[in-house]
Amino acid sequence: MKGENAELIYDALLKQLGEKYDFDKVKGGKFGAYMDVKIRNDGPVTLMIELDPNKVDKKFLKKLNKS
Asked: Rounded to two decimals, what is the model's pTM?
């Protein structure tokens, strides 16, 4: 997926998680930057999300771009 589209999805996900969960507990980094992250999992779930760029709805990307 092109970086600009992937970044839109990433930003939208962080925004929605913050709105529906807790902005103070939802953290992101600089999109596309190399990060060496050490975490201590203190919760019920860890999510790994993979998207097939050929199956991402183009209308969805346009909507994200407007928000």
From this structure: 0.55
